[in-house]
Amino acid sequence: MSKKLIFKKIWYKNIFCEEFKELSSNNEIEFKKKIAILYGPNGTGKTSLSKVLAANNQDENMSFEVEFRGSNNVDDSEIFHVISDQNSRNIIKGEAKDYLLGDDIEKEERLLKEIENGFNAMCNSIRSKLKDRFKIATKTHKLIDTVIDNEIKTFISNFANSRYKVDEIDKEDYINKVKSLNEETSSFDEENEIYKFILENSKDANSIIYKINNLKLEDIKQNLRIREIEENDEAIKIINKFSYKNECIVCDNQEYKKDELLKHKKNNKENIERSLDDKTKKILEGIINLVKKQPIDPLGIETILLDAIKTGNTDEVESLKNEVFNYIENIGKELVNLIKNSLDDTLIKNYEEYRKLIESQFQTSEEDELYLKNVISENIGREINIDRDEKNRIKITLGDDEILGTERDKLGLSTGQQNFISLSFELLKAKKSKCKYIVLDDPISSFDSIYKNKIAFCIIKFLENKHQIILTHNTELIKLLEFQTQGCFELYMFNNTEGAVNGFIKINKDEQELLLKLNKLLDLFRGKIWQYVKDKDLFLMSMIPFMRGYANIVGNSDVYKKLCKVMHGYEIDYVDVGLMYNSLFGGHEETLRISTKELLELDLENREIVDNEKYPLLNKSLYHTLSYLFLRLRVEEKLCSLEDNKVLNEINQEKQRLGDEYSGKTIQQIIDGVFDRRDQAKVKERVFFTSRKTLLNEFNHFEGNMNIFQPAIDITDKALEEEKNSILKALLDLDNNETNESTECNNLLDESAITLQNI
Description:
Blueprint (H helix, E strand, L loop, with lengths): L2 E10 L15 E4 L3 E5 L6 H10 L6 E8 L10 E4 L21 H28 L17 H11 L10 H10 L12 H8 L7 H6 L12 H16 L16 H18 L2 H15 L8 H11 L3 H26 L4 H16 L5 H15 L3 E5 L5 E5 L2 E2 L12 H18 L4 E5 L7 H14 L4 E6 L2 H10 L4 E7 L7 E4 L2 H8 L1 H9 L9 H7 L1 H11 L2 H8 L10 E2 H9 L7 E2 L1 H5 L15 H26 L5 H12 L8 H8 L8 H16 L11 H4 L3 H17 L7 H12 L7
Parallel strand pairs: 3-10, 3-11, 5-9, 9-10
Antiparallel strand pairs: 1-2, 1-4, 6-7, 7-8, 11-12, 13-14
Helix pairs in contact: 2-12, 7-8, 9-10, 10-11, 13-14, 13-15, 15-16, 17-18, 19-24, 20-21, 20-22, 24-26, 24-29, 26-27, 29-30
């Protein structure tokens, strides 16, 4: 069973929405993998959440309630260890023992060696007993199947395999299983003749015991002459044995014709065998004849089967099968006891002591030292050294100066270098923490690309034995973690917006792949997406910016130029976006002729573009993209239509002069044309629209980063609503008619109606 955190409450003054006071839905964080990523745009409360968890209910201004599934013995004081973001993180003060392993390394090494030796001895002992006591020397031996418990069956099969190495044993799982077993009561005695017989004849599907187990009573058909086969066999043996005699060995008859008698007995036997049905022949050849070859038959198998065939009465055969089953059952119990008694108390004690030791302190491994020496030294340009003090405790020095316990201003390091070292220490400290869950708040936000990758590696490697909750607003970190170790995390959207669906919203596997791999996204657009499209027209419209960027990248200049015609508010040409989609991705042959006019008349209130259950993230992204496309068009259309400006005339002149080569004016060029820099009265408007330029462009240009999700999900629904209203109001403020300003504003807001649905 996978581990879960089920939050019932998250409270921090007025930062979290009302639902967080009593969370009843979207309140689970599941750890099928070691990492759970909570993605949320800036302003959603990620850092506040980390502060709440860090406080561990010790601060009266914040609190949480959490339930655990799949985790035992969780102490409320040891739940979350939080690594804060760069703004909250400082160089850690203290002695080396506060951060690194310094306690009795020799003890750890000694215990580990004793454990390894103990498991090796145990494995050899079990393997020897399986071979000597139970005649089990292969992993496929049929007696292994007598064990009911699948885990124990696997253990025994592994031990019986001569190629199996003790290093492959999950020691913790094995010990826990052994400790959970009860001693089985059995009458097993390897010196007993019946047990000996069964052990010698149970190896595989061709063995006697296997065939008896699988013998069906209804297959036994009566044949009165079955015993004659045995009689003729014995006669043939005697004649052949005393072939040198000229008189009958039994009655001394001098007229004894041994050749004729031998032939007669053989013919009798063959005739009787020919008279047998196929199933009886199978019993005779597959069981009875095999038993005859054994030195003893302690179960009386031959007699019981021959009598049953002669009389047609199968009661004794049924009793035989039950008897064999009971013996085999006892063997199975004894195999369980073998595992139950395989560990001595000293080995268990050593392992438990070792586990406590490594859980309570940082493990000084070669990888840890390489991390400190290489990663940190490379980043700060100064040599990091790792030494041990007189008590064999580790200390870290930067040149000749010990880092731990040194004041920040005396380190001679930049803020960025300090942050890097600080994060390194924090990761080491988290590795040693007793807390079950490590929370990391935007761990890569202050670092350049090469070190972001190294940090992603360190997060996975150093905290591989910890459950991690990573809070981030950057899809780059998500991709870095995926590229370091495929499938290492579960992904959630963290939402905290009034009137929206809030909490930890699970992103399904399909959407994770779309987010991480462009080829998967393109494959979706080329195929099955149309099964999930709820509004074909809105879908095609929302795809216009992405399609234009993709067309530009793949060199489809014709589609690129045509799509540009519906991405500027001053354009009037119609474009068939349905055909454009089909030319890029295929799979859609319907037409949709639109111009900017149709886009500006959109009503986006409470609209579902693609199936919100199947693709909630994609639906949200498309909706945000379409909303910002609308806003961009509205801004350009309004600015170009203002009286006494020359922008639209310039556009028309350039279009006439350049024809198909005209690529359009940028939104910045339009702003500069409308709001003359020399006109001080236009400063406010110019500053406002220039400050919105990047935001408007980011949602409509994908050439630099073909990520349809990043710009759209990097803003909350609430923030998008506020941006929308502020832009529309600014457009209305450009109208000089103050008398009609209020009415016109309301009309425009009603007309546009871009009230974002809760996604």
